[in-house]
Amino acid sequence: MLTESTITRNARLNARLEDTAITTQATVIRVLEDVVGAKNLNADSRFLDIGGNSLNLVEVLKQLRAKTGVAPSPRIFFDKQTSSVAAISAAIDAQLHTSELAETAG
Questions:
Q1: Which of 5, 15, 64, 96 has a CA that sits 20 to 30 A from residue 76's CA?
Q2: Are 87 and 81 in contact (CB under 8 A)?
């Protein structure tokens, strides 16, 4: 049975996850702008379309790991379905969430 405290707790968690997603997208955009040199990026911007390549991907991954604590698989940057800022951010957030769950379970 759902109680008011369960609903409130879930609402706070959802709000925190939404804030994290927005923050992660902003971080991904800043890193891509700095490394690739592209400007005016948004959630739909794709790595290869903005001039990303395998050479600058190394620096992108390095900066993402430094800023977020994790780096997504390099493979997602070259797949049309997963190479958008939104998809890259979601992959980072999923890794962070998995890490948080492992820490609280352990």
A1: 15
A2: yes
- Interval 48-105: pLDDT, tens: 999 999 999 999 999 999 999 999 999 999 998 889 999 999 999 999 887 665 566 6
Predicted pLDDT at 22: 72
CA 23 remoteness from chain centre? 8
* Residue the block writes with tokens 């592209």: 38
Determine contact, residues 82/89, Cβ cutoff 8 Å.
no
Q: 88 phi and psi, to 5 degrees?
A: -65, -45
**Is the distance from CB of 66 to CB of 30 less than 8 angstroms?**
no
The gap from C-alpha 52 to its chain's centroid, in whole angstroms, comes to: 17
Integer-rounded Cα radius of gyration of the chain? 16
State the burial class of residue 21 (Cβ atoms within 10 Å of its Cβ: 0-12, 13-18, 19+).
Answer: middle
Please answer whether residues 57 and 83 qualify as being in contact, where contact means their C-beta atoms are separated by less than 8 angstroms.
Answer: no
Predicted model pTM: 0.77
